[in-house]
Design a protein that fits this description.
Layout (H helix, E strand, L loop, with lengths): L5 E3 L17 E3 L2 H18 L16 H5 L5 H21 L4 H14 L16 H14 L9 H33 L8 H9 L3 H26 L7 H23 L29 E3 L2 E3 L7
Antiparallel strand pairs: 1-2, 3-4
Length: 305
């Protein structure tokens, strides 16, 4: 896949917590279009819904979301993609304050991602992160002007499932502190996050649950990188589908680095956010087959389909 719009970021400029497995970080050069789209969305939200206060979305002091996760976006489409993404962040912050019955359903779906015996079909509503998966599919296909034809939809799902199985736990891992603090603030009894679910279902600590998430990300990424090796030169797959599959790896690395450094989650060394909680360790040394925690072996295999 040839790149036109992004630059490769020097890997010495960031820490990936060992969750990118050598995938390069690419950043779109047109950062101003992302800024315009995000700020426009915030202005419209403040005017039409409610004032935006004490809010952080996709923009960051060092890295911003769309330029990292959609580095090959057509320049003329980047601003509207940024607008839509920022609206999604604003909407998520409101809808996280939902009733406990909806929390129950979301918790069940999160658990299914980590349950090796789950029979949930690929990308069904029962799979945690379904909304995010749909958004990412739209972002890549619209942003890069790709067309996935109906006769390749099943193949697309098969090829990209490990990528989404890495992307979804990444969001849970880095958004955990924010979501837990907000649940405490709002008096919510549960947190719709895999860390919370794993702690409750497996009776493990927060640190152990974070290790399980890290293991899930690494294992899924290993599988996806194996798929990438077979897809890039497969002339039996349409060019647009090959571009889509290859682009997902950069969506993953961009999502990891943005999540680590963004003000939204507040994990790293931006001056405004210094002193915020950080992950206690890298995931470089997590084993390949299973994670042993407090005397228990926790399988984190991909759900069977």
């Amino acid at each position: 896949m040839d790149f036109i719009y992004p630059d490769v970021v020097d890997p010495r400029a960031y820490d990936s917590d060992g969750l990118c497995r050598g995938i390069a970080l690419r950043r779109h050069r047109d950062v101003k279009s992302e800024e315009r789209g995000a700020l426009h969305a915030q202005e419209d939200w403040s005017r039409l819904v409610e004032p935006v206060h004490f809010y952080n979305g996709g923009l960051g002091h060092r890295y911003s979301f769309m330029c990292l996760t959609l580095p090959e976006c057509l320049p003329e489409r980047l601003e509207i993609m940024s607008y839509a993404n920022e609206y999604s962040f604003l909407y998520d912050d409101v809808t996280e304050r939902i009733d406990s019955a909806k929390h129950e359903g979301a918790t069940t779906r999160l658990l299914e991602v980590f349950n090796a015996k789950s029979q949930a079909p690929v990308f069904s509503a029962a799979e945690a992160g379904a909304k995010q998966i749909q958004e990412q599919i739209f972002a890549l296909t619209f942003g890069m002007a790709l067309t996935i034809h109906e006769n390749e939809m099943d193949l697309m799902k098969k090829l990209t499932r490990p990528a989404f199985a890495a992307i979804s736990p990444t969001n849970d891992l880095y958004s955990w502190k924010k979501e837990y603090a907000e649940a405490q603030r709002d008096g919510m009894p549960r947190v719709v996050n895999a860390i919370w679910v794993l702690m409750g279902e497996l009776s493990i600590s927060e640190a152990e649950a974070m290790e399980v998430c890290g293991k899930k990300i690494k294992d899924s990424l290993v599988e996806f990188q194996g798929i990438l090796k077979t897809v890039s030169d497969d002339s039996g797959i349409s060019l647009d589908l090959r571009k889509y599959v290859e682009a997902l790896q950069y969506s993953h690395s961009g999502n990891v680095i943005w999540s680590i450094y963004c003000p939204r989650y507040g994990y790293r060394d931006d001056a405004v956010w210094s002193g915020q909680p950080q992950l206690s360790r890298s995931f470089e040394d997590i084993g390949q087959n299973a994670t042993t925690l407090a005397g228990k072996t926790v399988a984190v295999d991909e759900p069977k389909v």
